[in-house]
Design brief:
17 helices, mainly alpha, 10% strand, globular, 3-stranded antiparallel beta sheet
Length: 387
């Protein structure tokens, strides 16, 4: 981190401690103020959103104190509700806002530049986030499936066009996802009919289906049978034992004490970090010989993680398991192994907090997902074990 970045961070910490409600950002070597403010074109103090204001100051040490004074001024105007956009925008910026291109190709290019602005490096997590956006909004290319629905980049981004495109998606999930990213793009572009997009977005609801637990005996016997596979045998046993995500198993490193260290690929985290997974039950570590790691892809440590390689190996393992079940009546997916670990954790001596940490998500998600599966037979099992 440079000296300038340290000074900027120190000033922002001071603003945070003083509860100013404004931060200073360095974007393309210029200083901006960021705060919750009303919309430029439809100001409503009951509906605030994150907005940037140009200070017209270059990113230099000598300008940081000036930027701090502007942040305090903005905070004062917010509190008194005397803030007016026109007083903060230069004449040329007001004119540019009026003449801003609504062509999707222009908006998308600026949107991508804004997404990566201020990033010191393109981290694996940031790359994955952008890939999720691009699969819906990016222009067509030679890798795009002919029948996939994409925004036509030569057209204008309007509410009618967004809504008509979203309606083409067949499932509730894909309509919801497309709408989420289109709304983000439209908000960034501040299109004139943004209200209509928001109204339509509020109508779209998506509730993930509750995943039922698969037969534990089927999973155990399958893992036991497939453990000797040279490429995927160890990985499938590790997911079953430690409850890690498929994308994480390539980073998982068993250590003494029936614990394993691996990356935490939680989409909610800004940066990838390590977590510790517990073996349930611990006897599986010896039974499946998990200290003897054998896999084609290995990425120990978050700095060595490659999302694309991990995804490719995960897809290959999923296909391998589907091929194994091809002629069988009872079957399960890779995720079911992790899901079963979550269910087992509710009947173990692990606290909810430790189990959630092991799986790499919040306590609330753990409670909502796994404690909701608790049934009378589970309660009897816990009672017999602990009472």
């Amino acid at each position: 981190m440079t000296l300038f970045q340290n000074k900027l961070e120190a000033i922002n910490n001071e603003l945070k401690i003083d509860k100013v409600g404004v931060t200073i950002q360095n974007r393309r070597q210029s200083l901006y103020l960021r705060a919750m403010l009303p919309d430029k074109y439809d100001p409503d103090w009951t509906k605030l959103k994150q907005q940037r204001i140009p200070t017209r100051l270059t990113a230099e040490d000598t300008n940081l104190i000036k930027a701090k004074k502007l942040a305090l001024k903005l905070s004062s105007q917010k509190i008194s509700r005397l803030f007016i956009w026109n007083e903060w925008l230069a004449d040329e910026e007001k004119l540019a806002a009026q003449k801003k291109s609504l062509k999707i190709s222009d908006i998308y290019k600026a949107f991508e530049e804004d997404f990566w602005s201020g990033e010191v490096e393109m981290t694996p997590k940031k790359k994955r986030n952008w890939k999720s956006i691009a699969q819906y909004l990016a222009p067509r290319n030679k890798l795009t499936k002919p029948d996939s629905i994409k925004l036509e980049h030569h057209k204008l981004l309007t509410a009618d066009y967004i809504i008509s495109t979203v309606k083409k998606f067949k499932t509730e999930k894909t309509r919801f996802d497309m709408m989420k990213y289109c709304l983000r793009l439209a908000t960034f572009a501040e299109i004139p009919d943004l209200k209509e997009v928001k109204k339509f977005s509020e109508k779209l609801k998506y509730e993930p289906l509750t995943r039922e637990a698969k037969d534990p005996e089927l999973m155990y016997n399958t893992v036991k049978e497939l453990r000797s596979h040279p490429r995927f045998g160890w990985a499938i046993a590790a997911i079953f034992t430690y409850g890690c995500r498929v994308s994480e198993v390539w980073t998982l490193k068993p250590v003494e004490g029936h614990v394993a260290e691996c990356s935490n690929n939680n989409k909610e985290d800004a940066k990838m970090k390590l977590k510790y997974c517990y073996a349930l039950p611990k006897s599986y570590v010896e039974e499946f010989d998990l200290m003897n790691v054998r896999r084609n892809l290995e990425m120990i440590g978050v700095d060595n993680y490659d999302a694309e390689k991990a995804a490719a190996e995960g897809y290959a393992m999923a296909k391998w398991l589907r091929d194994y079940f091809k002629d069988k009546k009872e079957k399960f997916q890779l995720y079911d192994l992790r899901h079963y670990w979550g269910i087992k954790s509710t009947k173990s001596d692990l606290s909810t907090a430790n189990a959630a940490e092991s799986m790499g998500h919040s306590v609330k998600i753990h409670q909502d997902t796994y404690l909701s599966t608790f049934a009378l037979k589970d309660a009897r099992e816990v009672a017999a074990k602990k009472l």
